[in-house]
TrEMBL record:
InterPro entries (alphabetical): Arl6, P-loop_NTPase, Small_GTP-bd, Small_GTPase_ARF, Small_GTPase_ARF/SAR
Residues the record lists as binding GTP: G24, L25, D26, N27, S28, G29, K30, T31, G72
Any single Pfam family the record assigns to this protein: Arf
Membrane topology: Peripheral membrane protein
Subcellular location: Cell projection, Cilium membrane; Cytoplasm
Source lineage: Eukaryota, Metazoa, Chordata, Craniata, Vertebrata
Record's keyword terms, sorted: Cytoplasm, GTP-binding, Lipoprotein, Magnesium, Metal-binding, Myristate, Nucleotide-binding
Family assignment from sequence similarity: Belongs to the small GTPase superfamily. Arf family.
Protein name: ADP-ribosylation factor-like protein 6
Gene Ontology, cellular component aspect: ciliary membrane; cytoplasm
Length: 194
């Protein structure tokens, strides 16, 4: 089982075609991580900072990935929300060696989690889903159900993988400390893993 298969398992993805948003502050290593996820024959030798966003498409095993590599520079972070509706999963990359900007990463994560497009399903949506299951049987995941009902992303539970990057650097903090600094234990309405 390859890294991407394990990644899709951790994120709870069951589809064959997956749209992933890769978010995080600038210089956290998002583009490098995406590059390493691609098959070796598709990897780039030169990695440059992302301006705005880039889209990477690649296949691994039985999965087809479309990854939206979003720039983490302050002036581009407001673009993130325009792609929430397209995302089926999020990889949030944290530079574990940059303690000074961990607060900024926390603020951006809070903005992401509190965005109207990221909220958990309402009681009405859950009732509608129960009716759907009763009337038509279970057809796929809740995400597929919601897609069929033409509802927007705010009613989906998008899985998040937190990638504590640069752990090999001397001044980095542990993944446990990153989890504490970002208050990840308080995330109750979305599946996540660090």
């Amino acid at each position: 089982m390859g890294l991407l298969d394990r990644l899709s398992g951790l994120l709870g993805l069951k589809k064959k075609e997956v749209h992933v948003l890769c978010l995080g502050l600038d210089n956290s290593g998002k583009t490098t991580i995406i590059n390493k996820l691609k098959p070796s024959n598709a990897q780039s030798q030169d990695i440059v900072p992302t301006i705005g966003f880039s889209i990477e498409k690649f296949k691994s095993s039985s999965l087809s990935f479309t990854v939206f590599d979003m720039s983490g520079q302050g002036r581009y972070r407001n673009l993130w929300e325009h792609y929430y509706k397209d995302g089926q999963a999020i990889i949030f990359v944290i530079d574990s060696s940059d303690k000074l900007r961990m607060v900024v990463a926390k603020e951006e994560l809070d903005t992401l989690l509190n965005h109207p497009g990221m909220q958990k399903p309402t009681k009405a949506i859950r009732m509608c889903q129960s009716f759907w299951n009763w009337r038509f049987g279970q057809f796929g995941t809740p995400d597929q159900f919601i897609f069929k009902c033409c509802l927007d992303i705010k009613h989906r539970r998008i899985p998040i993988l937190f990638f504590a990057n640069k752990m090999d650097l001397r001044d980095s903090v542990t993944s446990v400390k990153v989890s504490q600094l970002l208050c990840l234990e308080s995330i109750k309405d979305k599946p996540w893993h660090i």
